[in-house]
């Protein structure tokens, strides 16, 4: 019955019962749960949920130490969910989709090459390219994508809470999205292998020499692969920063620099058995036919993606597309009227400034604070001639004198 309700209020429950409620929702609702608390009695509930949030308040730090996220006030939960939580889910899904695509494209090319090498398990790429592909060439661009990308800024995320709905429905990464990545990677690997293979069958250099060899073919295929995965990263990135540009263009520059270095004469003379592609990069990548093949391969791989997204945007736009379209078409806000600059005067004085001021030395040396006005002392005993007063020591006697004609009440 509790799972059928939208909201359940539990009063006067123990910490173990709080955890049981969270486990009940996890078991029967099949949902991602979040628990938030500010005291030690909420630790069991925070640990039982998928995501635990602690509020650092007056009840100690036990909830904060046991949580995944912590903040000072409960109102920050709105920004945590609608802005940072949605961005985190979007970035993680993009990272996974792009990671599967680039590795499917990279790996399935060997499957097509196996039909031409007699299934001898020979690599279609250079061995050094296989080593540094995921380690150097494609690591930092996808890393920057998973950190800085955002489809809508934080202001529009607050204005349109509906953007949080696709995350609840798991729309950005599911079995369907995984199959789409597999099909996209298979198609790209097919184009990456057969277009260079068909173009290099009768390709010759400008001087008439034949370059249709295994090493030249490997350099051409891996160069096409690097350009294709970089273009796909351009299509997936919505928010560009200086870090994205540096990592993306730097990875391409590192690929060409390492390729020419590993194919140089010096590396071959020093490590003959490790760098057998002597002069292949220089002899292959200086031909116009090779660059025309790279351009054609990239165009055939990126054109279906662009066409599919264009048709989807026209026929079946998502909530993200609608908000992004509205955001880009919004007129810029009017500039606020400029106010004359006001000088802020601080009321706090630093100890350094106080140490260099005049201080209270003159007051201390003048002895004025020691001179207090004499006030009449109140009588300790109302009747000085009483027996109680006479039995006390001399210094306890009152020395005040009553004026003549006065009466003591």
From TrEMBL:
Residues 388-397 have a biased composition (Polar residues). Residues 330-339 have a biased composition (Pro residues). It comes from the Eukaryota. It is a multi-pass membrane protein. Its main location: membrane. Residues 326-354, 387-409 are annotated as: Disordered. InterPro entries: ATPase_P-typ_TM_dom_sf (IPR023298), HAD-like_sf (IPR036412), HAD_sf (IPR023214), P_typ_ATPase (IPR001757), P_typ_ATPase_c (IPR032630). Residues 64-318 form the P-type ATPase C-terminal domain. It is found in: Membrane. Keywords: Magnesium, Membrane, Metal-binding, Transmembrane, Transmembrane helix. The keyword Cytoplasm does not apply. GO terms for cellular component: plasma membrane; trans-Golgi network. The chain crosses the membrane at residues 95-116, 128-148, 177-197, 217-235, 247-271, 291-315. Pfam families: PhoLip_ATPase_C. One of its GO terms (biological process) is Golgi organization. NCBIfam families: ATPase_P-type. PANTHER family: PHOSPHOLIPID-TRANSPORTING ATPASE, PROBABLE PHOSPHOLIPID-TRANSPORTING ATPASE. This is P-type ATPase C-terminal domain-containing protein. It comes from Takifugu rubripes. The lineage of its organism: Eukaryota, Metazoa, Chordata, Craniata, Vertebrata.
């Amino acid at each position: 019955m509790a799972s059928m309700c939208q909201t359940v209020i539990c009063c006067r429950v123990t910490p173990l019962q709080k955890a049981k409620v969270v486990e009940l929702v996890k078991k029967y609702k099949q949902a991602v749960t979040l628990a938030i608390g500010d005291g030690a009695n909420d630790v069991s509930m925070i640990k039982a949920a998928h995501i635990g949030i602690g509020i650092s308040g007056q009840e100690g730090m036990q909830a904060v130490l046991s949580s995944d996220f912590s903040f000072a006030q409960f109102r920050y939960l709105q920004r945590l969910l609608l802005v940072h939580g949605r961005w985190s889910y979007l970035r993680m899904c993009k990272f996974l989709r792009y990671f599967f695509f680039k590795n499917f494209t990279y790996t399935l090319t060997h499957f097509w090459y196996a039909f031409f090498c007699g299934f001898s398990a020979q690599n279609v790429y250079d061995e050094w390219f296989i080593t540094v592909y995921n380690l150097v060439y494609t690591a930092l661009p996808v890393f920057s994508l998973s950190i800085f990308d955002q489809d809508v800024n934080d202001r529009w995320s607050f204005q349109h809470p509906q953007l949080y709905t696709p995350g609840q429905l798991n729309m950005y990464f599911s079995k369907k999205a995984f199959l789409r990545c597999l099909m996209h990677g298979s198609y790209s690997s097919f184009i990456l292998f057969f277009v260079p293979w068909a173009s290099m069958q009768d390709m010759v250099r400008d001087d008439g020499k034949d370059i249709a060899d295994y090493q030249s073919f490997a350099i051409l295929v891996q160069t096409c692969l690097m350009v294709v995965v970089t273009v796909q990263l351009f299509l997936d990135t919505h928010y560009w920063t200086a870090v994205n540009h540096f990592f993306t263009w730097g990875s391409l520059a590192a690929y060409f620099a390492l390729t020419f270095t590993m194919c140089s004469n010096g590396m071959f003379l020093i490590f003959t058995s490790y760098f057998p592609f002597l002069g292949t990069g220089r002899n292959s990548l200086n031909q116009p036919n090779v660059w025309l093949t790279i351009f054609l391969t990239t165009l055939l791989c990126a054109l279906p993606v662009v066409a599919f997204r264009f048709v989807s945007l026209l026929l079946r736009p998502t909530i993200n597309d609608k908000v992004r379209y509205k955001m880009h078409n919004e007129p810029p806000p009017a500039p606020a009227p400029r106010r004359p600059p006001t000088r802020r005067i601080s009321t706090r004085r630093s100890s350094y400034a106080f140490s260099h001021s005049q201080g209270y030395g003159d007051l201390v040396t003048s002895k004025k604070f020691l001179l207090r006005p004499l006030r009449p002392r109140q009588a300790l005993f109302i009747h000085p001639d009483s027996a109680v007063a006479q039995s006390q020591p001399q210094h306890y006697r009152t020395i005040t004198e009553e004026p003549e004609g006065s009466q003591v009440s």
